[in-house]
Specification:
Blueprint: H1 2-21, H2 29-38, H3 41-46, E1 55-56, E2 67-71, H4 101-106, H5 110-126, E3 131-133, H6 156-171, E4 176-182, E5 195-197, H7 200-207, H8 209-216, E6 222-225, E7 229-230, E8 233-234, H9 239-249, E9 255-257, H10 266-272, H11 300-308, H12 313-329, H13 344-357, E10 359-363, E11 377-381, H14 406-413, E12 418-422, E13 430-431, E14 434-435, H15 442-455, E15 458-464, H16 487-497, E16 501-506, E17 521-524, H17 532-540, E18 577-579, H18 588-594, E19 611-618, E20 622-623, E21 628-637, E22 643-653, E23 664-673, E24 678-686, E25 692-694, E26 699-701, E27 705-712, E28 718-726
Parallel strand pairs: 2-3, 3-4, 4-6, 5-7, 5-18, 6-9, 11-12, 11-15, 15-16, 16-17, 20-28
Antiparallel strand pairs: 1-2, 7-8, 10-17, 13-14, 19-21, 21-24, 22-23, 22-27, 25-26, 27-28
The structure holds beta-D-glucopyranose.
Beta-D-glucopyranose (BGC) binds next to loops.
């Protein structure tokens, strides 16, 4: 029996690995060409722009369907009205809310990313969506960016490895993923017009790799252009980004969709490779002609240029070819599965991602786990203990069947404890692009919290940010690095009456922690979706051992962050231009190279057990360009509980002709180990992945010389070092 279970497990693993490496089924291009022959010029143009907020035209005469899209990226958004941003008011569109992508990245587990993709893809399919607008892979450059929670952290390798299986999972449902926002949309303030300048090295080494991996390894069927400008040209119709890189160098064969309202010019958009225009303001146009969508840049104005011969018909044919290709992969694929929504297995996936993504940052004297049988008084303080986090945040908002709050999760698991709750502070309602302070009396909220803290055996402070404007929310950045709504002061007063305090931070961003040495424990809990409270209780009770790792650095203060070290021109820019002055030194690359100690480093996360790694070795001492470097290492669970650890390999080029970061993540693997167990694993790195982008020759360059492979449990907890050489 045991053997049978084992072989089923092996089989499932193989199926999983197989799915991860599965290639796109080729589309019959001859069918596409014959349809192009049938289409009139008017019909071709119609395919290239929206007909409603979230759909684009089909051609009914030929049975060509409309394309329906939905946000993304943490669940399938509630149905939106045809021509306004209002909810349509359906009663059958409540979804599973999956944890935010920061949490997914923190799992450091590509297999779980695939499960996430499959589940969300099934929900999109059930809702008859052809494109799911996600995942987001913009790099975490500053902790102030309001949309970091929708992205996969600060490291291009981690974001690449985690995005690819998500995409494959979504697309195996016959639903296109749409990787966004291409590219350099690294802040929300002035996102609609800021003109980003940066070195080619930073562009190629930091900001492009996750998009490239999504295209080349994930074989993503659609990409969304960003709002901002790069080198004086809008990203959605940028010659370098779209024509030369995305569709040229990377040979992307899918559809480039605009971000909503990110198109600004017909000719440039048409010629540089924009395929579908969405979201260009229709409100001001609705009184003009009978259909406002006809006035889109890629509608009548495009048709006019085609008719006059100023733009050649081959330009629209290329767009139509891509759109039809996407259709053959999605809504014209007759064998795609039927999908399902809000099923128990989807909630299970949401819970599993949450369990694996929460990061234990501090745990003095074993504060966590808390015995689930305890009869003690636990004061749960903080608005985030009960606040719904699927509401707000902008386009990633969700209408979910249920969202278990942290308080509910704790009440369910700790049935013998005396759990008391106080809000402590209040933030106000979540209204898009508006900050509305709470009307509740701050002082009475604080006094009530201090009262229950005083009488409790322990305090769980559940705070952080939320999905309001100027917090973790689209169309605005945070105004400062501290906890908002008076939480720092509140914590200080709580600590004055009770020193047994654990902090649970719900946020998609790093925050300052001036109180860090005065609390016993800290858990970074992201936005966890439908099953958030249950997953938190799983971890707090010790039913599940934490194994998440930080996908971005927590600096002590904002001035320690690279982007913020060069004044306003670097962040947020002067209102028109912005220069990424920290260059390639984003996140831990900055901290390590400049020797600035972070509060918590990239790749860091504790467990209820301990691990060690020993005996790291490489399969060769000298490698050439074509080689795969294999690093063997033994990892041991040295503690008393089963758990999982992420073995991380960082690389440093010791003899480079250009500046290289002190450390760059090049490989990682999550390893599950029983108490006392050890395993020897082998991690692989393609030698070419040690290259830098050579700005002179405009290509990747692998230099000869000595390289250091650093094997560790975080970017600063390096346990083993292996020296290798690259020879041509
Ligand atoms: C966001 C996109 C989103 C789109 C549609 C835009 O404002 O930037 O991420 O997919 O709206 O809701």
């Amino acid at each position: 029996m045991k053997k049978a279970i084992l072989s089923v497990t092996v089989l499932l693993l193989l199926v999983n690995i197989n799915l991860l490496s599965q290639k796109n089924t080729p589309v019959d291009e001859s069918k596409i060409e014959s349809i192009i022959q049938e289409l009139t010029l008017e019909e071709k143009v119609k395919l290239c722009h929206a007909q409603s907020k979230f759909s684009s035209h089909g051609v009914a005469r030929l049975g060509i369907p409309e394309i329906w899209m939905s946000d993304g990226p943490h669940g399938v958004r509630a149905e939106i009205e045809w021509d306004s941003w209002k909810h349509a008011g359906w009663t059958n569109d409540s979804c599973t809310a999956f944890p935010a992508l920061t949490c997914l990245a923190a799992t450091f587990n590509p297999q779980i990313s695939h499960k996430y993709g499959v589940a969300i893809g099934e929900e999109a399919r059930y809702r008859k969506k052809d494109i799911l607008l996600g995942p987001g892979v913009n790099i975490y450059r500053t902790p102030l960016n309001g949309r970091n929670f929708e992205y996969m952290g600060e490291d291009p390798y981690l974001a690449s490895v985690m995005a690819v299986p998500y995409i494959k999972g979504v697309q195996q449902n016959g639903v296109a993923a749409c990787v966004k926002h291409y590219v350099l949309n690294n802040q929300e303030v002035w996102r609609n017009h800021i003109n980003v300048k940066l070195s080619d090295r930073a562009l190629y080494e930091i900001y492009l790799p996750a998009f490239k991996a999504s295209v080349q390894e994930g074989e993503v069927w659609s990409v969304m252009g960003a709002y901002n400008k790069y080198n004086n040209q809008w990203c959605c119709h940028n010659e370098v980004l779209v024509k030369n890189i995305l569709k040229g160098d990377w040979a992307f064969d899918g559809v480039l969709v605009t971000d909503w309202g990110a198109t600004h010019d017909t000719k440039e958009a048409a010629l540089n490779g924009l395929d579908i225009e969405m979201g260009t303001g229709t409100d001001g146009l609705s009184s003009s002609s009978n259909n406002a969508y006809d006035n889109y840049y890629l509608a009548n104005p495009f048709l006019a240029l085609l008719k006059s011969g100023e733009i050649d018909e081959s330009v629209v044919d290329d767009k139509v070819r891509r759109i039809l290709r996407l259709m053959y992969r999605t809504n014209m694929n007759t064998s795609r599965p039927i999908g399902k929504m809000a099923s128990q297995d989807h909630f299970d996936v949401a819970r599993e991602v949450a369990q694996e993504g929460v990061v234990l940052l501090k745990n003095k004297k074993g504060f966590f786990p808390i015995d689930p049988q305890t009869t003690k008084t636990i004061a749960v303080i903080g608005e985030n203990a009960t606040r719904m986090m699927t509401i707000g945040g902008g386009s990633s908002e969700l209408k979910t069947v249920h969202e278990i709050s942290p308080l509910q999760g704790l009440q369910k698991r700790f049935i013998n404890a005396n759990i008391v709750h106080a809000m402590g502070y209040a933030s106000g309602p979540s209204v898009y692009s508006r900050e509305i302070p709470s009307k509740l009396d701050a002082d009475s909220l604080k006094q009530a919290a201090i009262q229950i803290a005083q009488d409790a055996d322990m305090v769980l402070f559940v705070g952080g940010l939320n999905k309001n404007h100027y917090q973790d929310c689209e169309n605005g950045d945070r105004k400062h690095y501290h906890l908002p709504f008076g939480q720092d002061e509140l914590l200080k007063e709580i600590i004055a009456v009770n020193t047994n305090v654990g902090v649970i931070l719900i946020s998609g961003n790093a925050v300052a922690m001036p109180w860090i040495s005065d609390v016993k424990a800290v858990m970074q809990a992201w936005y966890l979706g439908s099953e958030g409270g249950n997953a938190l209780a799983d971890l707090i009770s010790g039913d599940v051992n934490p194994s998440g790792k930080l996908p971005f650095t927590f600096p002590v203060s904002l001035k320690d962050n690279g982007a913020h070290s060069f004044g306003e021109i670097s962040y947020p820019g002067d209102g028109v231009h912005q220069e990424y002055k920290e260059d390639i030194l984003v996140g831990y690359r900055w901290h390590d190279t400049k020797k600035i100690k972070p509060l918590f480093e990239f790749g860091y996360g504790l467990s209820y057990t301990t691990f060690d790694i020993t005996e790291a070795s490489s399969n060769q001492a000298i490698y050439s360009k074509e080689d795969i470097i294999k690093v063997k290492v033994t990892v041991k669970n040295t503690g008393k509980k089963d758990g999982a650890e992420v073995v991380q390999v960082y690389v440093h080029d010791e003899e480079s002709s250009v500046l290289r970061p002190q450390k760059e993540l090049k490989s990682f693997e999550k390893v599950r180990l029983k108490a006392g167990e050890s395993k020897t694993i082998e991690l692989e790195i393609k030698a070419t992945n040690l290259s830098f982008y050579d700005e002179v020759n405009k290509n990747w360059k692998l230099e000869e010389g000595k390289y250091k492979l650093m094997v560790g449990l975080s970017s600063r907890d390096i346990r083993e070092v292996v020296d290798i050489h690259i020879k041509q």
